[in-house]
Each structure stands twice: as C-alpha cells, then as structure tokens.
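Q: Hi! First time doing this. I have a protein sequence and I read that you can turn it into a structure. Is that right? Here it is:
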Amino acid sequence: MKPYWFSCVVLFALAAAPQVPARTPSDSKPPSALEQTSIEQTSIENEKDLIAAKKKDDASYFKRTLSRDFSLVGIDGMLLQGEAAEGNLGDSSLVELTPYDMEVVPLGDNGAIVTYDAIVREAPEEDQGPPPRYQHFTSVWVKQGSQWRLKFHQATAEHWGDW
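A: Yes, that's right. Below is the predicted 3D structure, encoded as structure tokens:
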C-alpha cells in the first residue's frame, strides 16, 4: 500500500510544481550553412594572421587582437594571463611554424575554436634542446562588437620524445 501512496504524493507534487516556460530557440539558433562557412573562413584567416604575428613577435598585432581577458597555456603547461600571456605569444626565434590539418568548430555566431597541428622549429636554448618539433595548437576566437579577438591559445607537444 505504501508504494501507491508514495506515487500519489509524487504525482501531486509534480502537478502542483510551478510550470517553467520552454526556452525559445531564437536566441541560441545555430548559424546557417552560409554563416558557418563564413565563420570558418574568417577563423582560419585570423589564425594565419596570428601565426605570421607570432613569427615576427608583432606586439602591435597582439595589442589590437587579443581580448582583455586573454589566456595562454604554453608548451610547458603553465597558464599565463594578461601581460604575461601577451608577452609569451610571439617568438621571433622561430625558424619554422607550418600549420596543417586546420579545423574550425563554430560556437554560434560570435565564436570559434580553431585547432591544428604544426611543425615547429626553433633555435635551441643553451640549457635545453629545442621544443617539441610537432605541436598541436588550439585557439578560441570571439567576436566582440565587429572585431574578432583571440581569447585563448594553447600549444601542446605531440611527441614528447623529441624534446
């Protein structure tokens, strides 16, 4: 008899609970195929510009492109934010940074994740050899107003044996 009463109490509680209106998909509708293609193309161009700026250690590019809350996870796994992150993004000692297999995951109309593998060659430092030659990069781009800004960037070693 107890299960019957328990079921009645649960049903009564559910019937008396306040009704929550369903969310409308208008605010979170996915981009159309054309919008998605445009976001993907823009994101790839943004990433290519970033790679060029990294090679030149272009501080002016970083100033106008990074979001105010930019974060960077370097090849060493350390999280850097603010000026420290900005200062470690460029590397004029790069001999090579050749991306391949770029992919874009759109995040609605105002964001995208760009991932790719790259061949990285850098002059070795005195106290250690060169960084890993093959790395995986991830960037998060967000649209703020009419401008795309880099919010997050991470470099991950693909083969630890060559460091």
